[in-house]
Design a protein that fits this description.
Blueprint lengths: L2 H4 L2 H13 L3 H23 L1 H39 L5
Length: 92
């Protein structure tokens, strides 16, 4: 269930976009290193997700869900503001 979110078109697009904007060899090495670090963190989280969820309980999971929802909302507002600033330069 998590695979489309982890390695879906959005993740692939981010890596392609970073590689296009940073053509240097050191930049590419940094991108690969970042992908490996994120992959290792995801592997640990997926491996220990069930025990962590059991320890957090319903209240802890609900709190984390609310915090993550707020962060996604903040990212959406930032994207909206940047889009409006680019489309309507007089607002910025």
């Amino acid at each position: 269930m998590a695979l489309p979110l982890i390695a879906g078109p959005g993740a692939i697009g981010v890596v392609v976009g970073l590689a296009a904007r940073n053509p240097g060899i050191l930049d590419r090495v940094a991108i690969v290193a970042a992908v490996l670090v994120i992959a290792a963190a995801l592997a640990v989280l997926l491996r220990y997700g069930t025990p962590l969820t059991e320890k957090l309980g319903a209240t802890g999971v609900g709190a984390i869900t609310r915090v993550m929802g707020f962060l996604i909302l903040a990212i959406g507002v930032e994207i909206l503001v940047h889009g409006l600033a680019a489309a309507l330069p007089g607002l910025a």
